[in-house]
């Protein structure tokens, strides 16, 4: 039998280094994970350098690599991917940015970079879309509110560059910076001018907006400034369906990951109750993935949470959340005719509190795989498996071969 469907399950930042508070085990090795262990026992295991050995991947560059779009060729910065994930359809040449709603005081100093972790900013976004006008600069813009204090901006116009700085002073009590071009290219100067004008006009609109007036009456920090950063120029990415002949969906609560899925042409399937954090409704997510496999050839599902615990340096919390993930994955064991690929996108060691270049465990389970002797899904056990050590960009070719969709190289 040959599998026709593929599930890519990316457990974000799940792999780690030995943790002191776990007797020298990694959280994944310390966790009780009967479901992942069974997938490992029934599959072929290995370890993987998402981008390349020694390279510390971001979640964005690693996911691009896993989908077979090596970031060295296809990465255009975080802004365009966040913008796409926030709901702006990015086309080639557009400049995308990530934004924060923030608070400035009467003296013009940033007092809260997240405006009191405001949420429900759609009315503010609407006022900005209606009120800001960059046509004098020959530029159009798109602006969308995201989750919490987040938002995204995209500029559309001829000859815009993406080498510009941010207005984020990165600390509270400081004045917002002026956005500057980072090169002598007039295209970058043009983008910087448009950004500063956008920030000025949007600030005026936000200042008097009824939602902010009400917040100030309630003693809450108003969202009266936009901090924008992560500029990147959207490139051309060959669509996933053309590249591989597979239809596909992406399931992720993180806008960055859903944005990556969308820019390569995967359909984003929202799941109510998922937060991208440790309180996410994982059962609903797994259910949705199984439903999607009924409609599509390929599903990418990202489960965050463990990455967050790694960034916080909390090994025990990470181990416990891995056990929660494992329980939620149980329904996947019944998918006998689907190729299931489980991996991390990068390691997020609690001792580093950030991503590291340590290779991640990977397992492929389904019809046709040469089952190896590994029966535990963790960093050390998987290193003894039959896949040995691969790169993220190898994963799609290996997958396509297993589902008989790869083409012969030579005669
Ligand atoms: Zn990640
Ligand atoms: Zn992370």
From TrEMBL:
It is an enzyme of class 5 (isomerase). Pathway: Carbohydrate degradation; glycolysis; pyruvate from D-glyceraldehyde 3-phosphate: step 3/5. One of its GO terms (molecular function) is phosphoglycerate mutase activity. It comes from the Archaea. InterPro entries: Alkaline_phosphatase_core_sf, ApgAM_prokaryotes, Metalloenzyme, Pglycerate_mutase_ApgM. Residues 5-401 form the Metalloenzyme domain. Its EC number is 5.4.2.12. Keywords: Glycolysis, Isomerase. Pfam families: Metalloenzyme (PF01676), PhosphMutase (PF10143). GO terms for biological process: glycolytic process. It catalyses: (2R)-2-phosphoglycerate = (2R)-3-phosphoglycerate. Catalyzes the interconversion of 2-phosphoglycerate and 3-phosphoglycerate. Belongs to the BPG-independent phosphoglycerate mutase family. A-PGAM subfamily. This is 2,3-bisphosphoglycerate-independent phosphoglycerate mutase. It comes from Methanoculleus chikugoensis.
